[in-house]
Amino acid sequence: MAEPSNVDFDPADRVATLRVLDANANRAAEGLRVVEEYLRFVLDDAHLTEVCKQLRHALAAVLQDIPAGDRLAARDTAHDVGVHITTPQEQRRQHPADVVAASFHRVQQALRCLEEYSKLAWPAAAVRFEPLRYRAYTLQRAVGITERSVQRLAGARLYVLIDGRSSADALAEFAASLIAAGVHLLQLRDKTLSDRDLVARARLLRRLTRGTPTLLIVNDRPDIAALADADGVHVGQSELTVKDARTIVGTDRLVGVSTHSLEQARQAVLDGADYVGCGPTFPSGTKTFAQFPGVELLRAVSREIRLPTFAIGGVGYDNLAQIQAAGCQRIAVSGAVLQAASPAAEVARLIAALGRLEVR
Q1: Nearest to 353 by CA among 336, 341, 202
Q2: Nearest in space to 247 (alpha carbons), one of 214, 268, 271
Q3: From CA 224, how far away is CA 330, in angstroms rounded?
Q4: Per-residue model confidence as pLDDT tens digits over 174-202
Q5: How are the residues of the chain apportioned to helix, strand and coil, as percentages rounded to the nearest 5?
Q6: How many other C-beta atoms are found inside a 10 Å radius of the C-beta of residue 44?
Q7: Would you state the pLDDT for residue 88?
Q8: Ranges of the chain whose pLDDT falls below 50
């Protein structure tokens, strides 16, 4: 426990400062508990619940620098002029999300007060309060993006990855059949096309998907996604970061991330990804992997993370039951559709099978 650094601190000012610190310590802790309960019981997200819990415990650790006995001695709720000051807005909450939004603002404002007023006598604590406020900002963003993505991708279960095909006409015919079959997301992934051809193919797919429920994603290239007015971009662990991709595609487009471990999935949430691809789940005929985290990774991610998650890597109708048993109800496929005798029929078959379970 640190002693006040300002030995000449006027007793009356010290008591007043302690009252400010005590009130805001309580306000921040209470607000974090409200947020944590939302993440636990409403959003049902174990990962973000744990992040919030760690933040709450970190706050308690910093507050140990300010003597609890002195805080209690300075507390004077009976004569606090702010106790009876309220506004009509404080009593209006229409949805649990309104509650958590108000609590986040309360937490951040309280942390700022703690940081500023502790500078008067406990500067070591002030330095430790500042990063807590930034962690609260990051948590709020992750919660907001998770909520938005859950809503935006509520009905998205089948994600098909295609290349640019042998020609623009061949791509148009092939993609049109998949869109008509009801594919939820379509990703253009082609490492062989020139940039000009890739833009042209992406714009072609945009024309085909515009006005349909099918979302268009471009692999690896946020610049191409922006030029083609696609719905989003998907990046891997060695491509651009979520931050850099977001800088290019903006806030309205989706940014998906490939993850190969639980730690990477957790980080993708905090980085602000809109969804994650999780795998490789099984050996793939279209891509080579050195390791296969398999369905165990799907089970771990599904248990912890609410952000929309797509199983990827060797996924098809024959192993769909294993994926669903692991708690994952969204899949990303390539060969299973591209190599099918009737790709459109295979899309319809996969959608029907995925529709037998409710998506979280």
Answers
A1: 336
A2: 271
A3: 25
A4: 999 999 999 999 999 999 999 999 999 99
A5: 55, 10, 35
A6: 13
A7: 65
A8: none
pLDDT at 83: 66
* Domains present along the chain, CATH in parentheses: 11-150 (1.20.1260), 155-354 (3.20.20.70)
Return the closest-CA partner of residue 14 out of 119, 120, 110, 115: 120
Rounded Cα–Cα distance for residues 171 and 179 (Å):
12
What are the tokens at 167? 């020609």
Longest dimension (CA), the chain: 84
Give yes or no for a contact between 337 and 311, defined as CB atoms under 8 angstroms apart: no
Spatial distance between the Cα atoms of 205 and 69, rounded to a whole number of angstroms? 66
Residue with tokens 């490939």: 258
The pLDDT value given to residue 217: 98
Q: Which has the closest alpha carbon to 332: 310, 300, 351, 314?
A: 310
Closest CA to 48 of 258, 266, 331, 284: 266
Count the neighbouring beta carbons within 10 Å of the beta carbon of residue 192.
Answer: 8
The encoded tokens of residue 98 equal 């309104």
* Structural contact between residues 254 and 215, judged by C-beta atoms closer than 8 angstroms: yes
Amino acid at 27: R
Neighbours of 264 (CB within 10 A): 18
pLDDT attached to residue 359: 63
Please list the residues that pair with 88 across neighbouring strands. none
Q: Output phi, psi for 331, to 5 deg.
A: -135, 150
Nearest-angstrom CA–CA distance, 251 and 214: 19
Indicate the DSSP class of residue 170: H
Name 149's Cβ contacts closer than 8 Å, sequence gap at least 6. Answer: 254, 274, 275, 307, 308
Residues 6+ apart with CB under 8 A from 82: none
What residue type is assigned to position 160 of the chain?
V
